[in-house]
Specification:
About 85% of the residues lie in helices and about 0% in strands. With about 100 residues, it is mainly alpha-helical. It has one domain. The longest helix has about 35 residues.
């Protein structure tokens, strides 16, 4: 039981930082100095953990992992959206 609590606690801290990252990106509205595929990879890993944790009975890690995976996915979606908005604005400026 204690390995699940330790791992789940680490996942919770990661979830806090991930959602904080999302908030900062949302405020800045600019993607600079970040290689977004890294976050996409960790979002995919988080999704895998949502399958893996229940399979090994780590329910606290699973619950915390939901928050972490959702934060990573939200960040990736926001980053892609900002890049798409930027590309559209550049095309419209060229008209």
């Amino acid at each position: 039981m204690w390995p699940d609590l330790i791992n789940g606690s680490i996942e919770l801290v990661g979830a806090y930082f991930t959602w904080r990252n999302w908030h900062e990106l949302r405020q800045a509205r600019e993607l600079r100095g970040v290689y977004w595929p890294t976050v996409a990879f960790f979002a995919l890993w988080g999704a895998w953990n949502l399958i893996y944790y229940p399979a090994i009975g780590q329910w606290f890690s699973f619950a915390a992992g939901i928050l972490l995976a959702a934060g990573n996915l939200a960040w990736v979606i926001l980053a892609i959206s900002l890049q798409a908005d930027k590309a559209i604005a550049e095309v419209l400026d060229d008209l």
